[in-house]
Amino acid sequence: MTGLLVGAVFGAVFVVVNAQSPLPATVATVLRVVAVLGAATVLGLWFVTVRKDKPEEGPRRNMFTRGYLIVVAVEAILLFGGVRVLAALGQPEQANVAWVALVVGVHFIALAPVWKDWSIAVPGGVLSLLGAVGLVMASTAALAWVPIVSGVLSGVVLLAGCLTFGWLSVARPPSTSNEDQAASAARNVLSASGPK
To answer: What is the pTM of this model?
Structure first.
C-alpha cells in the first residue's frame, strides 16, 4: 500500500500541474479536484490496510531493496539528464512532461521483476506509451496538448491503478500471502473437480 500511496500522490501531481489550457478552465478544475480526491481515497485505503494488517501476520516485504535503489537512481539520472538534453536540443518545454512520463513508465516496468509484481508493468507500459506519444507531438502543431496527453492522462492512469489495487488490497482476506492464495485456489479447484 505504501507504493500505491506514492503512486497516487504522483498521479495527482501529474494531473494538478498539467490540467491547463487548451482544456476549458472548468474541465481543468474538475480534473484537479477529482485527482486530489483520488489521492485522498488511496490515503484512506492505506490507513485501513495498516489497521487491518496485524504484525503477527508475518514479516513485511521490504520494497526498498538494492534493486529498487538502483532503478530509482537510474530514473533520477534519466529524468534530470534527459530534461537538460531536451533543452540543449531546443525542444519546447512541453516535451519535458512527455519525457517524465516516459521515464516514470519505464521505471515501473523495471521495478516489476525487482518486486516480482508484474501488475505494475501494465501502468508502466501505458505511461511509457503516453510519454512517447507526447515526445512525438512536441514537434507538431499539437504541442499544446502534450501536457494533457503525457501529463493528465498519465496521472489518471496512475490514480486509476492505485485506486483499483488499493480497493483490492482492502477487500482481500486478512492473511493472504501469495503461497496461501495459491494453496487456497488449488484447494478450490480440487474440491470443485472432485467426486460429488
So the answer is: 0.80
